[in-house]
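Trying the structure run again after the queue cleared.
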Amino acid sequence: MYNFEFQKPDTISDAVAALGAEDAQALGGGQTLLPTMKQRLASPKVLVSLKGIAELQGLCMGDDGSMCIGGATNHATVAVEATSYPALAATAAHIGDPAVRNRGTIGGSLANNDPSACYPAAALASGATIVSNSREILADDFFQGMFTTALEEGEIITEVRFPIPEKANYQKFLQPASRFALVGVFVAKFADGVRVAITGASNDGVFRWGEAEETLSTNFSPDALQGLSLSDSDMIADLHGTAAYRAHLCSVMTKRAVMAAN
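Done. Tokens:
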């Protein structure tokens, strides 16, 4: 590791000010950033830790019935305290291993937008709102491709608001070494329709499967998905699985999610 400046502000405003420095980078749980720095793939001169900001910690219920989670809340806390949204709690409980769950944060995961991460699928399927220090961004507008989001330079995720669906479930076919999703599918049924978000499969990162949503909104049953499939033309292909294999898993895991949600 090389030398860098480390700052740990107490307030959001102080953090934003610190991020105004040249080559400054926000630090959540550091589960991606620190290994990247060790490999010299990133070399910020200033790290601004968000872990000491009380405003960014914890869960609460909003006035509209949504679940509000502070951006610096770790996965282990979500797994234990998100009792009003069991599918989200279960998703958090199966991210990585205990060390990752106790350090990694929901804001850091969403801001990083790893193409195989679990939280992007949960946020997109839930129709969540990502709140930053300066604005609110709908999940449909937030994720803009692999490792790319709508966040601007120096913008911090302060809160994530999850509408709570009538039924929901997340199914992950994990890569056992990394515990990332080889394919993960989050299905959420609301009064006005069903949302299906898939992670781990596409070269463009997390995405919604519109055809499955339309079918499930009419008949929320695994049988309704019979015959539906996704093209493998833009699926990830690597040593863990071919593009065709991942496309097939999308259908399998969606059916499992619907079955488990019922």
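The chain has two domains: 5-162, 167-261. Worth checking whether this holds up in the mutant runs.
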